[in-house]
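SEVERITY: medium
COMPONENT: batch folding queue
REPORTER: lab tech (J.R.)

DESCRIPTION
The queue accepted two submissions in a row. Attaching both inputs and their returned structure tokens so the on-call engineer can compare them side by side.

ATTACHMENT 1
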Amino acid sequence: MQSLGPSGSYGRPGGAHEASLARGAAHSPSRRLPVPVGSRSVVSRGPKTIALGRARRSRFRSKWALLCAAFAGSAIIYGAIVGGQMERIFNASVTGAKHATVAVGFGVKRVTVEGQKNATDSAITAALAAGPETLMLAFDTDAAKERLEAVPWIRHAQVMRLLPSSLQVVIEEREPFAVWQTKGKTFVVDDEGAVLAPALPQAFPHLPLVVGEGASKHAAALYDILGPYEDLKRRMLAALRVGGRRWTLKLRTGTEIMLPDGNIAMALQSLTKLEEERGVFERDLAAIDLRLLDRVTLRMHETAVAPVDADAPSGVPTSATGATPTPNGRT
């Protein structure tokens, strides 16, 4: 016969140990079980959801969505092109980018000009065509150079960008050479005959006055020849271009000196000789005619046709041929 153990368990594995624990708990009511230190959290994970048989359908749907989006975008672009809105859209985007770039400091804020004498600020500003809203990075300096050189006073110009916001302009101005009077109007011209600006002769008293059609383009050549004759230039009031081929010099006394078509230098030598020998500049003469080949004609105010002195001064070449006359005036 199997005897019972003290625990009253019938040979069940672990029964004796469990009985001992039960007895210890019963006989030691003050004993407590150990309490875990720290905090513990319980994580609850729900069951995973697995979609079976839907992978191919999702891929197809995403491709269909992309295709619809592409079709809609193409339709919008086509409509913009047909409706003439594409250029407006492009310009709007470019303008927006430009304003953004200017806003961060790349607009024209300062312009310096070197070499300016007579050209006005307004003419330079208008030709430069740059302002606070002008994008420095897109500013065409070559086009600005051409516009500046179209200003009458400006012969050459150079435009440089100094990032982020400055333009430097260097100009070479045309030098005023003479005051040209034609058809009742007067202009300042340079040595090439280019018209620089309208002007009154009184505003440029130091400049010679040339009168007549074509006078502006031939004035420089005339005054090159007149260079050594300072006394004559001081007495001159104006140089008149006659027939587009020759000059008449008008003196302040009213005397007119009629020069030939060619050999002006020789004619002036004859005139100088006359002045030294007979003081023609101080005489009350209406005209001194140097156009003839072998004689100089002096005309008084009272008689406009009768010659006073028919022979050229001895030893002086004639104005047209350069030949030296004999004492009786014949070559």
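ATTACHMENT 2
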Amino acid sequence: MVMDERLSALLFALGTALLAHPSLAEPFATRNQSPLVVPFGLPVALPARLPPDGPGRLSLVSDWGNMVAIEGPEDNLVIDAETIELRLDYARSIGRRFAVRVSLPWRSISGGSLDGLAESWHDLLGLPDGKRGTLARDQIQIRYAADGDVLLDIDRASSGVGDITLAGGYQVYDSGQTAIATWLGIKLPSGDAERLTGSGATDVALSITGQSALTPRWHVFGQLDAVRLGRGDLLPALQEEFAWSALAGVAWNAWRGLDLIAQVHSNSAVFGADATGLSGSATVLTFGGRYRTQHGWAFDVGFSEDLDVGASPDFVIHLGAALTL
């Protein structure tokens, strides 16, 4: 019921974004970075305007997150890990209304070094720390047990290439300022489920994304995704067959090429287990800024915070650099 209410609110915000006035804003290209959710094919935020004619657009994105979650009546779920995702994206238009997009991720899971920073961040904002104080700092432990059986137990750092995503985009509408696009993405099992760099299955996602403006300086954007999850190797008996995600946000042009951005991303459960954190259902707030140069560069700095404590990383540093070629 709570997830239905969240998705309804985000759908309303998406509709508002699509029907408002012109805009040039784009969201941060991020999503829920939980180590048990990110291997699946839930899309990152996608552009509502396809790349202009020419060589295309190249971007490098980094999400560095820290997560501690202890769930269940007997602490049957423990997630204490630090994740880094580096993603190289390339998009190019084909004709006036079509585009192709390739996304190649690399992921690392370890004990990390952000535990102290995450605690200081929560103290600064007056946010709860959950059960962080019950675990040693900078360790890795990802464990899930059910009915006395340990189904997942990871206590060593790992890294590797993640699942590659191929996508095709179609420009539904573009007035020069207001834009709506649809994307069909296919995530291929090039990663390793044992290392949590992939799910071991092919996922297919259909997305609709839009951006528009309320005033010349205030812009809104939104996205809705429907995902068919292939049966993979990451807790397959508990995995859902379908998942949904949605995003809504606002951007304010504060000064010349500087935009301040805030967005909320929500996704439904990827697992059907009773433990809240394992299910993967989450709502994430990301805020920060983007600076655009006259030479086609755009630089992002953002921070993500879990609005559902224990369902996504407590703290994520988002960095990005993109160049229109």
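NOTES FROM REPORTER
Confidence is low (pLDDT under 50) at residues 13-23.
No errors were logged for either attachment.
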